[in-house]
Amino acid sequence: MLQTIGTLPVARKIAELRRTVAEWRRCGEIVALVPTMGALHQGHLALIAHARARADRVIATIFVNPTQFAPNEDFARYPRDEAGDAAKLAAASCDLLYAPDAAEMYPAGFSTTVSAGALAAPLCGRFRPGHFDGVATVVTKLLLQAHPHIACFGEKDYQQLQIIGRVARDLDIDCAIEGVPIVRESDGLALSSRNVYLTADERRIAPALHRVLVAAVAQVAGGASPQEAAAAGSAALLQAGFDKVDYLELVDAESLQPLRDRGRAGRAAAAAWLGKTRLIDNEPLSARDAR
Ligand code: AMP
Q1: Tens-digit pLDDT profile for residues 210-219
Q2: Taking the model in full, what pTM does it have?
């Protein structure tokens, strides 16, 4: 029998997860997985809703993965609220929470990792060395542990979504990787568990990140070069009150390399700092928009 939090069944062990999914699969049910680090908000719940619409059974995972944080990053203070998360998942008709501890994921002697490859080099990869290898490794493990038919990831972490799609194809993982559009506050700020770090002043500045990306996309659609639009965007972020811009770039939506061929779909993507908080966001540029 699985433990429950409130009404939500919870698996803490790989064996419990496998038994539960095997039983569902035996009954012919389609299983969807939604990996998260918890501190759930409406963005995560959109992934659950997407999964709910596509599958008979929905599993959410909560695991704050230590190997994707650098020593100077926010692993220790990352927001954690398992009871609150479980209530949200139950209300969203999630069937199972999988919440392993670090010893279950990385037992003594663990030493094999997945290297995220070429898609991990640009954008955030330049500023967070090793981050995407940590993500690729933990997501590969979650997919092999849960054996879902479908796994859902947010476009909020667009580079991560592209990398995971590549990993699943390259390693022949039998699971469809599906992206879900970004959920935003009414002022355009992309929902993120890290938004709780923002001071009131920083929160007022934060929506400029999306505004500037939308403006960069409009400039390129209007005929500006991707380089011009990116430079103008970086300057606009600093002007709006951001303390530092890691990058603002227009990239090919698939290869994540600088956008050159206007006939291909693109993405404007940025990472910028407000005080101690690093925000990321992105906005599509369809091939149709670009002239
Ligand atoms: P995290 O808990 O931040 O690791 O995110 C777990 C999943 O939720 C990832 O696939 C994210 O891309 C997705 N996600 C986070 N924020 C949003 C958002 N605002 N809109 C859509 N998906 C999101």
Answers
A1: 999 999 999 9
A2: 0.98
